[in-house]
Amino acid sequence: MMVEKLKVFADRMSQPSRAVLIFCRLNGIDFEEIKVDISKGHHLSSEFREVNPLQKVPAIVHGSFNLSERYPSDIFRRAKINSVMDWHHSNLRHGTVNYVVNTVLGPATGRPLNPKAAAEAEKVLFSSLSKLEDVWLNGEGRFLLGGSQPSIADLSMVCELMQLEVLDEKNRSRILSPYKKVLQWIDDTRAATNPHFEEMHNILYRAKKKFEQQRSRVAETSTEPSHHSKM
Question: Which of 43, 87, 212, 222 is buried most deeply by CB count within 10 Å?
Fold first, then answer.
């Protein structure tokens, strides 16, 4: 009897998608990646609605699938991981997503850039990075809560911060450089999960180059001398 392969519907521009894909690769889970391009509205199709009525990615299709590995079996540590994940979605994710969308990615998803919303999101992002630096990374281990290896929370939150790759390098450095523990933790998580980490984030590196080229063209256009004919 042929066993049905796990199907992961994902857009690698999506932080949760990248975290789930890296998770599956790390744990040797055999799966088929089905690409869903959010920028082209694939997640809004009637076909995808049958996969996930909420029309969000990632979506996982498999009758008996259970995300158990890389999720601690110890009940107390699992409770701590849950608290970090809950904090992430209300704080770090809120700040990162809204800042990136309102400074760079908005037009690609049909939204105008919003400097006021970006400024508010930046406040949340800086507050979240401070909490991450001083509280969640304040253990003896290299990972969240003093862990000796990355958990699903590490994957989820590092993939979140990798969204900042699409910013220009000066702005990204301005945001992250004050947080030395955070930067080291990103590097440690990358090293512990490669080559899968780099594979899943290549799409962001390509997007970064695209936006850099766009900014360069705009800068060149704005500095070109204007020629007015005399009447």
Answer: 43
